[in-house]
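Cross-check.
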Amino acid sequence: MPPPHAPAPRSAGSLPAGLIDAFPLDAAPFDRLEPAQRLVLLDSLDLGVYGAGEVLLQRDEPADALFVVLRGLVHERHGGEVAATHGPGGVFDLRALFTGGQTHSFVAAADTLCALVPRETLEALARSNPDFADRVHRDFADRLRALADERANRELTALTMLRIRQAYVHPPVFVDASASLRDAARAMRDRRATAVLVRDGERTGILTGTDLRDLVVLDGRPVSEPVGPLARYSLITLDADDPLFNALLLMTKHSVRRIVVTEQGAVTGVLEQIDLLGALSNHSRVVALRAERADDPEDLARASHDTIGLIRTLHATGVKVPFIADLVTELNRKIFRRLFELLAPPDLLANACLIVMGSEGRGEQLLKTDQDNGLILRDGYTCPDLERITAEFTRHLVAFGYPPCPGDIMVSNPAWARPLSGYKESVFRWIHRPDESAPLNLAIFYDAQAVAGDAALLDEARRYLLDHVQDNQGFFFQFARPVLAFDTPTGLFGGLFERRGGQTLDIKKAGIFPLVHGVRALALEKHLGETNTLARIWALADRGALDRPFAAELAETFTVLSTLRLKARIDTEQGGPGGAIDNTVRTAEMSRLDRDRFNDCLAVVKSFKQFISHHFHLNLH
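Predicted model, tokenized:
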């Protein structure tokens, strides 16, 4: 039978005799079946017929059958991009079949015929044929491993592109060859350096703190002796634009802890081994491991601060913002989960669900913004120490660099740390008896994701929300109206503005918020379970609520605006621990290409606001 939630094939039934030969019985995993088992398989097949553009399987949806392409072509999409193609003989998607947690969707790129292998048939064949079962499970494991390796390889590729100038290079400390050992030691102390560079005519040498110790303490040389004859002049040098991995290789090869950095042949600094390793250690696996093994909040604080370096590294090497956001989301949630585990007793972990909301819930938080989190308690459960635990959780997150929420939407606020029944009462009130804060509260709660504890509590609250959403114009008028709260100017960069050197603009208010909230309103109207904005855009396209070219425009616009926002915050050194949050972009500091892209994006946002206004009848009030 066709998988649930996918469009029904135009015709379905037993596989016609003319298509039996097209089924890949000689390919894995079906090649492990005995002849009698092959007959059982073929007898169980249904036929799916899909027109070009039809969705076979949506993101994050379970399936009741395995798809085997007989004719045509299927695109496997991730974030709107084609991640893989499946032609005749292609098989998908074991992950959807066994876990329902696939992150890709499958769309017919041409008129397509698929054989549908029912789950019950696969399970029966696996029970009767261990070799077939082993191959199916191995293919499933290989699929998961390939997805993990794909992302790890993208990150590793980014790190291998790092240049020496992107690590911390210590300013050079020079002394003349005639300077004494005491002078060299004093220069190191005053400049907090571990080595000095020695100028001797046309030559440049190096004398390290270890050299000084050995010369004075072990060899007994007088501190008045000149450094010139004692320095080493066979310097190991690399240019500032050389790959950082080259420095690691040279340090390893020559058993040294520093190299001299040059630009256009002139010495510009010293790269220390500890700084090189620090730059390379901003790898997500290292940060994640540090978070998972943290024994106290101080360890977690260090892991949290390392994510800033990781973001800067990945952004500087050209990694796309959606990938950075996915990565940072996972790291943040590991940090939040471990902090809650360190603070909460076992009974609280078993009877509560820690949730993150807003941009963190959508998986779109890059550099740190204010907190949006809550705690759902099991009805009937009480924790006598809850107030202290939630206050500590909020305090530590502030120390990690997450400012308090101006609206007090945090676990330290009892209104956001209460039983499931209390959340249901709030959802009912937000929908049926809304006050001024109801649309915002409902919006951020719709974005919620579970981080720690019993996720079933959030699942039940979300089901309650979706079951009670009113499909009427009045409700969605109120919910969608904030899309028009801020002006989105267009035509910013012609004539007068350029002559004045550009202007400043809040990129969140003018572009990102209207897009995020408008997509959220459409998603809520369709009762979608997705929380990420890009995922919502493509899910809406899959359901026909947005045509695919417009969805592609919106997805690209959201990515470009997020990239410009990240670049602006990194360039102004924002986003570090305790840093102020500023969404201002300065058009005068943009390249012409960025200004043109920004202007195009604002035009798309304005068009989308008009679409939302018409769709929810905002222009009639």
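Residues 75 and 85 are 5 Å apart (CA to CA). The two ends are 47 Å apart (CA to CA). Passed to J.P. for a second look.
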